[in-house]
Amino acid sequence: MQRILSFLRYLIEAKGVHGAHSAFIFKLFQEVFNDEKLYYAFSEIEKQRDNLKQMHSSIGVIDFGANGDGSTMHTKIVSKIASKSLKHPRYARMMFRLINHMNYVDVLELGTSLGITSLYLSSATRGSVITVDASDAISNIASSLNKDKRRIDYRVNTFDNELKKLEKQTFDFIFIDGDHKGESLLRYYEQLRPQLKENGCIVIDDINWSADMNRAWKQLCDSADVDLSLDLFELGILFSRPGMVKQHHVIRY
């Protein structure tokens, strides 16, 4: 019910390009949100998604997200994970275009999720991607998809433990996925915000997954160090844009 109500509010509030007055946001619409071109990497990555949907083998996965406490191993079928949990191509391609448009170099992904989004992110940057997942089985499958040996560093660890190791690194683009608890989201943001480069952005998955996640998202939008926040319902994007008047937009996407 919470998600349905959130979606109805989104439909009422969301605006298209004509509702965005900032030149920066207008260019985002034109070159990121409204761009329908199929870039060179898309078809190959989607072949990998299709392959995953045909993998009916089972793996053991420990759930550290909203539905798990990290203490129990669950058996999951790879094809079902691929069908239900992977980021939809529309949003994965949007992140590809965003990285490409902004010329982002250093990318961090929290939540590998079989590695399809990792491939999109790495295809967009001339730099490298660090992707973190607590499941060794998930990470192994993801790295096996990296046929072209793109610059992806697959790390098996909990988010909290890996972030301690990464505290001296900086990033242009950070994608937070895989843990749908509002408290965790706020903690990750607090840790990572000092590591975000000027003009960088943080993308947060499933901001309307629950009332708890939506409250955390709204709290982040109100943060003094967030200059621009964009609500796409499935995803939220937080920008650091020094000199910009603080703005929040609900984007019809």
Structural topology:
Blueprint: H1 2-13, H2 23-33, H3 42-53, E1 58-62, E2 73-77, H4 78-84, H5 89-102, E3 106-110, H6 116-124, E4 128-133, H7 136-144, E5 152-156, H8 159-165, E6 171-176, H9 182-192, E7 196-205, H10 211-221, E8 228-231, E9 235-239, E10 247-250
Parallel strand pairs: 3-4, 3-6, 4-5, 6-7, 8-10
Antiparallel strand pairs: 1-2, 7-9, 8-9
Features:
10 helices; two-stranded antiparallel ribbon; 10 strands; 8-stranded mixed β-sheet; 253 residues; alpha/beta; Rossmann fold
Description:
- There is one protein chain.
- The chain has 253 residues and is an alpha/beta fold.
- The chain has one domain: 3-Layer(aba) Sandwich (Rossmann fold).
- The protein is built from ten helices and ten strands.
- The strands form two sheets. Strands 5-4-3-6-7-9-8-10 form an eight-stranded mixed β-sheet, sandwiched between helices. The chain has a two-stranded antiparallel sheet with strand order 1-2.
- It is globular.
- It starts with a helix and ends with a strand.
- The model has no long low-confidence stretch (mean pLDDT 89).
Q: What structural class is derived from the secondary structure elements?
A: alpha/beta
Q: So, the CATH homologous superfamily?
A: Vaccinia Virus protein VP39
Known CATH architecture:
3-Layer(aba) Sandwich
Mean pLDDT: 89
Count of DSSP-assigned helices: 10
Q: Based on DSSP secondary structure assignment, what is the total number of beta strands? A: 10
Helical fraction:
40-55%
What's the CATH class, please? Alpha Beta
With strands numbered from the N-terminus, the spatial order across the biggest sheet is: 5-4-3-6-7-9-8-10
Radius of gyration: 17 Å
Enter the CATH topology name: Rossmann fold
Q: How widely separated are the two ends?
A: 22 Å
Reading the helices and strands in chain order gives HHHEEHHEHEHEHEHEHEEE
The total tally of domains equals: 1
